[in-house]
Specification:
Layout: H1 3-15, H2 22-53, E1 58-64, H3 71-87, E2 92-98, H4 108-120, E3 128-133, H5 138-146, E4 153-158, E5 172-177, H6 181-191, E6 197-201, H7 206-219, E7 226-230, H8 235-241, E8 249-253, H9 267-275, E9 282-284, E10 296-299, H10 302-316, H11 324-327, E11 328-331, E12 335-339, H12 340-345, E13 358-360, H13 366-369, H14 371-423, H15 425-450, H16 457-485, E14 493-495, H17 497-515, E15 518-522, E16 530-532, H18 534-551, E17 561-568, E18 573-579, H19 587-592, H20 608-618, E19 623-627, E20 633-640
Parallel strand pairs: 1-2, 1-3, 3-4, 4-5, 5-11, 6-7, 6-8, 8-9, 12-13, 15-17
Antiparallel strand pairs: 10-12, 14-16, 17-18, 18-20, 19-20
Helix pairs in contact: 1-2, 3-10, 15-16, 15-17, 17-18, 18-20
Length: about 650
């Protein structure tokens, strides 16, 4: 019973007794229908798979008139198998046998081969026979009439024979391929138009003579070309003579099944023997010789023949017998095919070949060999290049932003200096008044001395010296002011730290007197030199001094002590510190004191210490602020020293 019926008739009534409400039963009924549908689909798929599994295996016998391992036979067999396995719906089991008529050519061999096949395949139910023939149609005409008389037969024959009349009315389909002699000779004169001599090498068997007759027919239609036939020479002699051919000669290798000495050959053997020593290019009529050293030609394409035979075989499994004219195809055109290595050897450019030419053994280019790898590598390189370009663009933008920020900081530092000097204006005015007042008094005194009848020139000289000294003093004050007011970038030079501290103290001294702050400096006379910008470092130190004096504004006059210290630091540095006795730093200020726009002053901008940190960092140093163990706070910055 199908699973869907079991679900509906047995399981469903037990799960839902009559007492359940109708709405619940309807819902579960819908679910049961869905489950039943799933079961039905699964049952249908299983039945289809079961039906597919019972498809019978088809058994195909491949018969070769020549050796199975000849290049042409091997190509056709591989193509037939590939086409039938690709296009067939049944499993296919292949059997292969070969008569090897080239070595065993007596009539009794067919009888022996026929008896062998009858005994070997007596218990095998064959479905199809595919025959590959070269010398004649014997496999189809004699063997299949007795051994496999009731089976469909597909054949491929590569020769110059006409179809035998006994094949009419049989379940036989096939392809007869003639050599394209005309096409190959046209190719010779297209590729090598300077050719004046064409040497034809062929055998003396019945099949060899048929092919040579085709070549002679073309010979009679051409003028100004000397055809020379080497058919009355043993192959050993021909092998010696092809090494002595002149430059305007080419060789056309016809079929060679037997030479004049009676020795049996395969044409592929002869081609390989001659090509190694030939002094002229060798053209061929068969694709089986491509790869043995011959140049090529308008050849029989065995792979194409095998593919076509495979398609005929698939049709023969089910097709009804058809008329001979429809079942058997006769082909006379070949396929232009060449060996790349031979083209290079004889200096023939590939662009001279026909557009539909097939070139074998051409070395694959790096692109063809590793296309996927190259594409992957290119994608990776493009991704890396895009990433690098994006990073470079980002780096450029960041540097530009950093430069803008640095420029803005320098502008702000300049504004801060101007503001600082504004705070020191009264002190600086007082400092300038002293030398200017002294100059005025000395000038008045000098005028009084000069009004005497006999002026005291010694005293006048001393007055003039005092005037010069006071003028230089005023000039120094103005110079320090101009230096601090000047807009500039960092200009690093060798600096004497002692002079830098003294100059900064001189600027701030009068403001300290005005605020009644004691300004003390503690530093040794000789400190290591530093590299830096004098004005910017003065700005940092002056900012710390003014901050320290601001911090002590609420202290008593006796406690207003500001100490500037300088000493050698560790690891090749010097330390400069400014200590005050103010209220110190709050916990919040300790962590945020160097942040931009953070200030503890009611009128402050909060940029002084931030700018100072930037300046010290640009000099390769560090700045920090901390509370003293007693009262006040100390700000310290370090600068790297310069070796003497």
């Amino acid at each position: 019973m199908p699973r869907a019926l079991i679900w509906n008739r047995l399981i469903l009534p037990r799960c839902f007794p009559p007492g359940l409400k109708r709405d619940c039963f309807s819902i579960f009924r819908l679910v049961s229908l869905l489950v039943s549908l799933v079961f039905l689909i699964q049952d249908g798929v299983a039945q289809e798979l079961k039906g597919a599994e019972v498809q019978p295996t088809k058994r195909v016998l491949l018969m070769f008139s020549e050796a199975r391992d000849l290049p042409g036979n091997a190509m056709m067999e591989q193509a037939v198998r590939a086409e039938m396995l690709k296009g067939g719906t049944n499993q296919i089991e292949f059997f292969a046998e070969n008569l090897d008529a080239g070595r065993f050519s007596d009539a009794g061999q067919y009888v022996v081969f026929k008896d062998y096949l009858e005994k070997k395949y007596a218990e095998k139910k064959l479905d199809l026979v595919i025959a590959f023939m070269a010398r004649d149609f014997g496999l189809v005409g004699e063997l299949t009439a007795t051994v496999v008389s009731n089976l469909p037969v597909v054949f491929v024959a590569v020769n110059e024979l006409d179809l035998p009349p006994e094949l009419a009315g049989r379940r036989v389909a096939g392809i007869v391929q003639h050599f394209d002699v005309e096409g190959t000779i046209k190719l010779i004169f297209h590729l090598q138009p300077t050719t004046r001599r064409l040497v034809v090498i062929g055998g003396v068997s019945k099949m060899d003579r048929l092919t040579l007759a085709r070549i002679e027919a073309v010979d009679h239609s051409l003028d100004n070309i000397d055809f020379e036939y080497w058919t009355n020479r043993p192959i050993a002699e021909v092998r010696r003579d092809v090494a002595l051919l002149p430059g305007d000669t080419v060789v056309l290798l016809s079929t060679v099944q037997r030479d004049v000495s009676g020795q049996q050959f395969y044409t592929s053997q002869v081609g390989q023997m001659l090509a190694a020593s030939a002094s002229a290019p060798i053209y061929t009529l068969s694709a089986g010789l491509i790869g043995s050293g011959v140049l090529g030609g308008d050849v029989v394409d065995f792979e194409s023949l095998g593919t076509s035979a495979g398609r005929l075989a698939l049709k023969a499994f089910t097709a009804e017998p058809v008329a001979r004219s429809e079942a058997i195809e006769v082909r006379k055109n070949g396929t232009p095919m060449f060996d790349w290595r031979a083209l290079q050897r004889w200096g023939i450019k590939p662009n001279r070949l026909p557009a539909n030419a097939s070139i074998r053994y051409r070395p694959r280019s790096l692109w063809e060999e590793h296309r996927s790898l190259i594409l992957s590598a290119l994608l990776i390189l493009l991704a890396q290049a895009a990433t690098i370009a994006a990073l470079l663009a980002q780096r450029t933008r960041r540097r530009s932003a950093e430069q803008q920020i640095q420029q803005q900081r320098m502008e702000l530092a300049h504004v801060t200096r101007v503001t600082t000097l504004g705070q020191l204006a009264s002190a600086l005015t007082h400092e300038l008044n002293q030398p200017l007042g002294a100059i005025l008094r000395n000038t008045e005194a000098a005028e009084m001395f000069l009004q005497h009848d006999q002026p005291d020139l010694k005293e006048v000289r001393e007055i003039l010296a005092d005037i010069r000294k006071d003028d230089q003093r005023a000039g120094e004050v103005i110079g320090r002011m101009r230096a601090l007011l000047k807009r500039r970038n960092l200009d690093s030079v060798r600096l004497d730290l002692y002079e830098l501290v003294e100059d900064t103290q001189a600027v701030a001294r009068h403001d300290a007197l005005a605020r009644r702050v004691t300004l003390a400096v503690e530093m040794p006379a000789h400190l290591p030199a530093v590299i830096g910008d004098r004005v910017h470092l003065q700005q940092v130190l002056l900012n710390l001094i003014l901050n320290g004096m601001d911090a002590m504004s609420a202290c008593s006059v006796d406690d207003r002590l500001l100490v500037v210290r300088a000493r050698k630091g560790t690891e090749g540095s010097v330390e400069v510190s400014v200590s005050d006795r103010g209220a110190g730093l709050t916990p919040e200020a300790t962590t945020r004191i160097f942040e931009s726009f953070f200030t503890t002053k009611p009128q402050g901008l909060g940029m002084g210490l931030a700018i100072s940190q930037t300046i010290i960092g640009a000099h390769g140093g560090k700045i920090r602020g901390e509370n003293n163990s007693g009262r006040g706070a100390t700000f310290t910055f370090t600068l790297p020293t310069v070796e003497a």
